Amino acid sequence: MRPQPLESKKRSDTSSIFLFTSRMAGDQITLLDLWASPFGMRVRIALAEKGVKYEYSEQDLWNKGALLLQMNPVHKKIPVLVHNGKPVCESLIIVQYIDEVWKEKAPLLSSDPYQRAQSRFWADFVDKKLYELGKKIYTTKGEDQEAAKKDFIDSLKLLEGELGDKPYFGGETLGYVDVALLPFYCWFYAYETIGNFNIEADCPKLIAYCKRCLEKESVSKSLEDPQKVFDFVVMLRKKFGLE
């Protein structure tokens, strides 16, 4: 699968302002993030869907700054959403928080308890399967890599089956599972290139769904360019002595 170019974006090394409208006048919202992080991209999509104005603060994960350590002293990881001085950590928790605070526009979770539970199940599946298996694809070789590729495709096929013929996982509108999954799409090219396989050949409906979702501005402006992500992964591999 060739990388699909996304709209180019410029980010400051320190911070840049994303101009959306906020629900509450005077809100101070900062996103501590790393540009290539699929977890951070989840938060960016959710904020864009809600139309929330926020400040973006790029973090150096190899030289963590005082603000990140102060706002997430437990895990010391991005993303962190700082809302009026109060930090919210872990991407899926942040997305749920955004959905609850800015609930007037573009609900991401259903009002039905069962549907909410199902959405959380599949988002958790994405967290536990795609990230770890994708990481194994670009950090291992030989039999270990082949096993990771097989498990990765099998996981995508399960997601493809859950999607079915629906436009989005939750039905007719972009929702929680979509926000959880879509950021990994811009990492697919890196997985494929390093692992020498083709995701679209095995999961054509899922790739068609991802491309369709890119037609939404909230998605296309929040995902990074696949080629840049690939270059980032190559840098990681060199950093850890894998190339």
What attributes does this structure have?
243 residues; alpha+beta; five-stranded mixed beta sheet; 11 helices; 5 strands
Descriptive report:
The chain has a five-stranded mixed beta sheet, covered by helices on one side. With 243 residues, the protein is an alpha+beta fold. Helix 1 (38-50) links the parallel strand 2 (29-33) and strand 3. It has helices spanning 38-50, 66-71, 91-101, 113-139, 142-163, 176-181, 185-195, 199-202, 204-213, 217-220, 226-239, and strands spanning 15-18, 29-33, 54-58, 80-83, 86-89. It comes from Populus tomentosa (Chinese white poplar).
Give the topology.
Elements: E1 15-18, E2 29-33, H1 38-50, E3 54-58, H2 66-71, E4 80-83, E5 86-89, H3 91-101, H4 113-139, H5 142-163, H6 176-181, H7 185-195, H8 199-202, H9 204-213, H10 217-220, H11 226-239
Parallel strand pairs: 2-3
Antiparallel strand pairs: 1-3, 2-4, 4-5
Question: Would you kindly provide a brief summary of this structure?
Answer:
Helices cover 53% and strands 9% of the residues.
The radius of gyration computed from the alpha-carbon positions, rounded to a whole number of angstroms, is: 18 Å
* Low-pLDDT runs: 7-24
The class by helix and strand makeup works out as: alpha+beta
Give the count of helical stretches: 11
Report the biggest beta sheet as strand number plus sense, adding barrel if it closes: 5 strands, mixed
Distance between the termini: 23 Å
The shape is globular
Q: State which percent range the strand residues make up.
A: 5-15%
In the sheet with the most strands, the strands line up as 1-3-2-4-5
Task: Give the strand tally.
Answer: 5
- Mean pLDDT equals 92
The percent range for helix content is: 40-55%
Can you write the helix and strand succession as a string? EEHEHEEHHHHHHHHH
